[in-house]
Design brief:
This protein is mainly alpha-helical and 69 residues long. It has one domain: 434 Repressor (Amino-terminal Domain), CATH 1.10.260.40. Helices cover 61% and strands 0% of the residues. Helix 2 crosses helix 3. 12% of the residues are buried.
Length: 69
């Protein structure tokens, strides 16, 4: 399973945006994007949801047994 940080970074680069450009388009602070891409764990889930929506995804609960696959 791809990590959230890898997903955001790869997806952002695929659309050709810098961290700054992406943060502006998503309407979040640059630090949100940086923390996401660095794999930080103390994130505001509302902000994570906004970023994921930019790529057509949504934040949802996943059973722990699914994570270990």
């Amino acid at each position: 399973m791809k990590s959230l940080s890898d997903f955001v970074k790869t997806s952002r680069k695929q659309v050709g945006l810098t961290q700054e450009q992406f943060a502006e388009r998503a309407g979040v602070a640059l630090t949100v994007i940086r923390k996401l891409e660095q794999g930080k764990t103390n994130l505001n889930l509302d902000k994570v949801a906004v970023v994921l929506q930019m790529f057509g995804h949504e934040l949802a609960a996943v059973p722990s047994k699914e994570i270990s696959r």
